[in-house]
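>> Question from a student workshop board

For tomorrow's exercise we were told to take the sequence and the ligand below, predict the bound structure, and bring the output to class. My setup keeps failing. Could a helper post the expected result so I can at least see what it should look like? The ligand is zinc ion.
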Amino acid sequence: MSKNLILSLTNFVRSLERLFLPYGGHPPALALAGFQHEHSTSSNKRAQEFSLKELIGDGMLWAVPKHRRSVEKRLNRKFGYPEYVWKPLKVKRNIRSCQTCGHDHELGVLCPFCYNKVLKETEQMQAKIQEKLGLDPVDKEVIVLYEGEKAEQTAEQLQGKRIVEMKKPRPMWFTKNLLQKSTQQQSEAKEVKPSDLA
Ligand SMILES: [Zn+2]
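>> Workshop helper replied:
Here is what the output should look like for this input. Compare the format with yours to find the bug.
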C-alpha cells in the first residue's frame, strides 16, 4: 500500500519535472560560473535517477502546519487571556504589612511569619503532650502551662486535669485568655472590671 503510494508519488514528481523543467531541475542557488554542474550536463540521466528516497534521504517527513495562525491567536498564546490566565507579571495591590511583625502578606491571608511562629509553638506543645501522655487514653482534660504558671493556679483549677508543663516562659504573643473556654458559665456578678472582660 505505502510502496505503491510512494511509487505513484515519485512518478507524479517526475512527470511534473518533465513538464515544467525541461533541463531536469533548476541549478543550485550557489552555482560556480564556468563549473559544469551535473544538473546541466546530464539532464536526462538526472531525471531518471531522481527518486523520492534520494530526496528524503534517511530523514522522515514531519507533519507541518497547514494554516497560518492569526495575530490574535499568536498574541493570546504569548500573553494568555486576561480573563483566564494572564502570563505577564502584574502589580499586586493587595499586599499589606503585618501589624505584629511587619512582614508582608496578602490581604485576607494570615501573615506567614506569624503563622509559622504559632505552628512551631504548637508542634512543641504537641510533642510535650505526647511525651507526657504516651499511649494512655485521654480521659482527663489536658492543660498546658508554661514556666511559673503552675504556682498561680489554685488546687481547685488543677483538680482532675492532666498538666503538661513547658519548660520555658510563655511567649509574649501567646496570651492566656486564648485557652479560656468559649462556653463558660454565666457569672453571677453584676459588676465586671474592665480587665476581666477579655
Ligand atoms: Zn506577622
